[in-house]
Amino acid sequence: KQEVTQIPAALSVPEGENLVLNCSFTDSAIYNLQWFRQDPGKGLTSLLLIQSSQREQTSGRLNASLDKSSGRSTLYIAASQPGDSATYLCATADKRPGGTASKLTFGTGTRLQVTL
Amino acid sequence: NAGVTQTPKFRILKIGQSMTLQCTQDMNHNYMYWYRQDPGMGLKLIYYSVGAGITDKGEVPNGYNVSRSTTEDFPLRLELAAPSQTSVYFCASSHGELFFGEGSRLTVL
Asked: Contacts of residue B33 in chain A, CB cutoff 8 Å?
C-alpha cells in the first residue's frame, strides 16, 4: 500500500525567500505525481503534474521535481510572497493494468506561511 | 466551464438521517472520485468510478454508497448518518490531472 509523507507539517518563511517542500512515497511504481494548493475552507487547486517519465515540471515561480528511484518529489517556490500562504499537498497516482491512472494517495500536507 | 460542482456546501444532519451529496462535472472526464478530509488526516478515498456504470470502493467506503448513471454525475449517498461521518467531502474528476470541487462540509449531531 502506497504511503505518502510530507515534512515539515508547517513552515514559516519571510517574504522573498526561496523554499523547498518535500514529498516522499514508498512505492515507486507510480503513474504520476501531482502537487496541489489548498486555501482554508476551499478545495484543492492543481499546481503541477509530473508524469512518471518526467523529471520536473515548471509553472511560473514553481518547479516540481520527481525522483522515482528514491521515492521523492520536491516543490520549489521562488521568491515567496504572502499570497503563497496555503497548505500544499502532494499525491501519487497508482498504475493500473493497461497503464492508465488509478486512484491517488495524498500526503497530509505542509502548511506554509509567508510573512511580511 | 464550471468544472466540478458540489452541492450542498454545508449541511447539518441528525444521527440516523440520510442524505445525498451531489457532484457534477462538465469536462467529460471518465474518472470521478469522492474523498473525505479530516483535520490532520489528509484525504481518504471513499469511492471512485472509471466511467458510467462502474464504481469501486476506496479506503473508507463503509456507511456510503455511490452510483454513476451518467459521465457527468457521481452522487454520494450517506445512509444512517453517524458522528464519525462529520467531515469535509470533496468530489474530483480526472483525465490525468485531478480537478476538485469546493467541498461539502457535513456535521452529524
From this structure: 103-104
Residue of A nearest to B42 (CA): A108
What is the number of alpha carbons within 13 Å of residue B11 lying toward its C-beta? 23
Question: pLDDT at position B88, please?
Answer: 96
CA B12 to chain centre: 16
> How many Å apart are CA A78 and CA A98, to the nearest integer?
38
Q: Which amino acid is at B53?
A: G
Any alpha helices (H) in chain B, and if so which ranges? none
How far is residue B71's CA from residue B51's CA, in Å, rounded to a whole number? 6
What count of CB pairs under 8 Å joins A to B? 45
Q: In the structure grid, which three cell numbers stand for residue B68, read together? A: 454513476
pLDDT at residue B16, as a whole number: 96
Pairing mode, if any, of strands B87-95 and B97-100? antiparallel
Cα–Cα distance measured from residue A113 to residue B25, given in angstroms and rounded to the nearest whole number: 32
Binary contact (B98, A42; C-beta < 8 A): no
Task: Answer whether B42 sits within 8 Å of A89, measured CB to CB.
Answer: yes
pLDDT in tens, B68-85: 999 999 999 998 999 999
Res B42: pLDDT: 83
The shortest CB-CB distance from A49 to any of B90, B96, B102 is to B96
Q: What angle do CA A88, A94, A98 make, to 5 degrees?
A: 145
